[in-house]
Write a structure and sequence with these properties.
Structural class: alpha/beta
Strand content: 15-25%
CATH architecture: Alpha-Beta Barrel
Number of domains: 1
Radius of gyration: 17 Å
CATH class: Alpha Beta
CATH superfamily: Aldolase class I
């Protein structure tokens, strides 16, 4: 069954070095996949890692979840957007002023990078949220944070696939949803709010992040071929 578009899959390069990450990227076609560089790889290799994968033709999602006082986020994002990133993110729990500062940083650099906000990490459960002092259910918290993102004119949110339908209904089809915690087949690990590839596409996820499904596979090439069998 063909359910995926080209470049809808973002492969998470959760590695400690360019050498390790490159062992995966060289198996991937930049016309089919985008890449996610997170804190682990970025803290090991620095901004040069973006340029290395740009040279290979990949669009980069720089996933650093900036979360700080507005001025710090503004200055950090201005620096990050000097590099050629396709998409980057902030954490929406930083508040409205911080979201506005991030948007202003993008405007001041004239960057065309997509700017999205992390709502509630897919590793968190209702119990975790309650222990943090949030006395609302996760879907309601995600909706509130997404509303803040929409009102402050950023492009979309990172959320679990389960929250996508409500976000699309409330904030429009053009409001981007990026969904981590996606599995080829359902299984339990350190993600709580997960979905299968088929479920995620059926409910309208714009971009699907796959990490260990590929990188921890016993046969990575075989897994890549399996994913590509879903692509239109």
């Amino acid at each position: 069954m063909k359910i995926l578009k080209r470049k809808q899959i973002i492969v998470a390069l959760d590695y400690d070095s360019f050498k390790e990450a490159n062992s995966i990227s060289k198996l991937l076609d930049p016309e089919i996949y985008r890449l996610k560089i997170g804190k682990q790889l970025f803290s090991a290799e620095g901004p040069e890692i973006i340029e290395n994968f740009n040279k290979q033709g990949f669009d980069i999602f720089l996933d650093l979840k900036l979360h700080d006082i507005p001025n710090t986020v503004y200055k950090a994002l201005k620096n990050l957007l000097k590099h050629d990133v396709w998409m980057t993110n902030i954490h929406l729990l930083g508040g409205e002023e911080m979201i506005q500062a991030a948007r202003e940083a993008r405007e001041s650099t004239k960057s065309e990078a997509l700017l999205i906000g992390v709502s509630v990490l897919t590793s968190l459960t209702e119990k975790n949220i309650k222990n943090m002092g949030f006395y609302m259910q996760i879907p309601e918290l995600v909706k509130n944070l997404s509303k803040s993102a929409k009102q402050n004119n950023i492009d979309g949110v990172v959320c679990s696939a389960k929250e996508v339908p409500e976000i699309k209904k409330n904030f429009g089809e053009n409001f981007i949803t990026v969904t981590p915690g996606i599995r080829i087949q359902q299984k339990n690990d350190d993600q709580s709010r997960v979905a299968t590839l088929e479920e995620a596409t059926n409910i309208g996820s714009d971009y699907i992040v796959l990490g260990r499904e590929i990188t921890a596979s016993e046969n990575i090439s075989k897994m890549i071929k399996k994913i590509e069998s879903y692509i239109i």
